[in-house]
Amino acid sequence: MKHPLASTLNQILRKSFFSNLSMYRLGLLILTVGWLLPVNLLAQKANKTKKTGAISFTKQVLTEEFIAEGVAVGDVNKDGKVDVLAGAYWFEAPKWQKHEITQPEKFFYDKGYSNAFVSQTMDVNLDGWLDFVRIGFPGKEAVWFENPKQKAGHWTAHTIHATVGNESAGFFDVDGDGKLDLLGGNSATGQMTWFKPPVSAANVTWQQTAISKEKSPGSEPFSHGLGLGDMNQDGRPDVLIKEGWWEAPANPLQPDWTFHLANLGDACSQMYAYDFDKDGDQDVVSASAHALGIWWHEQVRNEQGAPQWNTHLISDKFTQTHGLSFTDINSDGYPDLVTGKRYFAHMGKDPGEYEPPVLYWFELKPGKNPTWIPHLIDDSSGVGVHVVTQDITQDKLTDIIVANKKGVFVFKQERK
Ligand SMILES: [Ca+2]
Ligand SMILES: [Ca+2]
Ligand SMILES: [Ca+2]
Ligand SMILES: [Ca+2]
């Protein structure tokens, strides 16, 4: 049977196409056609609209206590919901009920630091339960806490390495096997080192590979700037510091990688490689850890054909960008930046320390002259020594998770 609206629609169609098209009629036509579409098609349409609409973030405060400078996410209790882990605690989703992982200590935002810096979850002992991996104060130990599988009491701590240097030591897939490794300086020897987590439950040890010579830049406790990216585009991710990069060999377990000097700017936090100006070579993005500036370092060639780096300012809106994430926030296929102020990073001695602890995302428009559009998310949180960007509410939109001296926060992405 013909739908009663079909003839009306037909008339509108005829009128619209055979007389002049007015915007009003076109709108009416779209509305009418939309009304007649099967429900599942409408649902798809609504879903698509949701993903391209205006972006906002809903803030959730897990605690306003200073417990950590870094944070991790993962389903701790296997109920299908992604929990948040920071310092001595895990916060159970969706109500963020606080549970102790280990004995808490008291930290003061204006007197010092915590013992929990860049953090990550992974199943270290391969028993099917996510464990908590925590890099401590720069130059000190990295530890993994064993998930007790719902049993009461604190989690058992195991030391991975006693002296992990570089303030952006963190978790990267160095050997490309799909699992994160720990990468940082061995500050006892001054060697850039990566630690591969156990591959068998029978032998829970981390395999250590020093990729640099002793006393290399980037490996001291307070070295600033570290990243992983394929600088020479041979398909193997290389290790970046602000003084240059180590070229990954065919076998990443081989020690002493070749180092290439490069001037990749001032002391910074996380570093990322990407072809921002779309000229075929890899450029680098970084942000000042304690002072002012977010930059991209454009790769160019000198007269001899050797790589050279021209640094361009992206933003100087706020200082202390000690955590930088590189992720596609608006789902347009281009990785955006998420950063903010690491509130009271030097207890009042850094420039701009008393300014509001803002959190921003910068929307990338790549091209010959790439641009980044700043979007303010919040002005009372900021970032820690890293910022986690992951879809933790499982709606395919990237959320932002932060722990720092202001507390622990989840920013859930919403689309209009
Ligand atoms: Ca486990
Ligand atoms: Ca490479
Ligand atoms: Ca380029
Ligand atoms: Ca994007």
From TrEMBL:
Keywords: Signal
Cited Gene3D superfamilies: Integrin alpha, N-terminal (2.130.10.130)
Top-level taxon of origin: Bacteria
One Pfam family here: FG-GAP_3
SUPFAM superfamilies from the UniProt entry: Integrin alpha N-terminal domain
Record keyword Cell membrane present: no
Name by which UniProt lists this protein: VCBS repeat-containing protein
Source organism (scientific name): Adhaeribacter arboris
